Structure formats: C-alpha cells, structure tokens
Amino acid sequence: MSPPSTTATPEQHKLLTALALAMVDHPRATLTELAKAVGVSKATLYRFCRTREQLMERLVSYGVDTLMQALREAQLDTQPPLEGIRRLAELTLQNRELSCFLIHHRHCLEIEDANQWSVILDAFFLRAQQDGFLRIDISAQALTEIWGSLAAGAIDAERRGRIPRVGLNTLLERFFLSGAAVQP
C-alpha cells in the first residue's frame, strides 16, 4: 500500500516506518541512536523532528492516519463479510510497522483515535452477524476487541521471529474465523 499522499512522501513513509520499528526495539533510544538504527545521519533526523517528543507525536499521528486510511480502503461497509475480513487482514499487515508501534505505545493514543477504529469495526462485525456470517452469541464490540488483540499478537510475534511473515494474513483470517464463524 502506498503511504497516504496527504501526510507523507514515499521517502518520509519509509523513514517513519523504520523509525516506528526502531522506537519499538529501542524505546529509550536518543535521537542519535535512532538515527543510527535507521541508517540516517543525526542531522537528517533532526531536520525531520527536532525532539524525541516531536518524533513520538509525528509517529502516533501518522500511524493513526495510515491505519484509518487502510480501514477506509478495506471498504468494510460494502464488502461481503469474508472479503472484508481478508481485506482487513491484508491492509492491517501491510502497515505492520506502524501497527506494532501503536501497539507498543498505545498509552500515547487519544481516546478518539481508538474510538474511530472501533466504530468502523463494530459496524462491520454487526453487519456480518446480521448477514448470518458471524455468530451472534459474541457481541460485535467483543469481535472488534478479539480482532484487534489477534492482529496485535500476530504482528508482534512475527516481529520477534516467533511466526513467519509468509501467510500471516491467512493465519490471522483463519484463526479469527475459526472462533467467530457460524458453525455448519
């Protein structure tokens, strides 16, 4: 997926995603250490963000914007449920660096950011229940939380080398549906 054109150039997207992972791997790193970790000069990083706090704010904002754009691209309001889940998995994993950063730095998120994500997913899962695709004995809100936890766990496990990247979206889809799908 290409980065949102309104928030970052392709070069900025590449730097932001690298910095997001560096901040996960080295949460207390200085700007100098982060610059070295992502392969840019201290001066380049300083021109990009002058303080660690500015960098955190920029990463949180960019991460939220990018993931919200991915949700919009998934077109969950119009997709058949199975296709919606597949698109959701694909687009979530295409932004795994930013997802991983937001998971590890969730304390920096505003309540409104989390609510935007939840409203979209709650509506999608409710529609999938109403269509008879997902079981109804689990609330749509619970399905949203289960999806988010499963995606976060899979992304983190892949980052730590516990599960392979290949087929991760299929794994995510299958494990979610095995617990949430209506049983024949």
From TrEMBL:
<dbReference type="InterPro" id="IPR050109">
    <property type="entry name" value="HTH-type_TetR-like_transc_reg"/>
</dbReference>
<dbReference type="InterPro" id="IPR009057">
    <property type="entry name" value="Homeodomain-like_sf"/>
</dbReference>
<keyword id="KW-0804">Transcription</keyword>
<keyword id="KW-0238">DNA-binding</keyword>
<keyword id="KW-0805">Transcription regulation</keyword>
<protein>
    <submittedName>
        <fullName>TetR/AcrR family transcriptional regulator</fullName>
    </submittedName>
</protein>
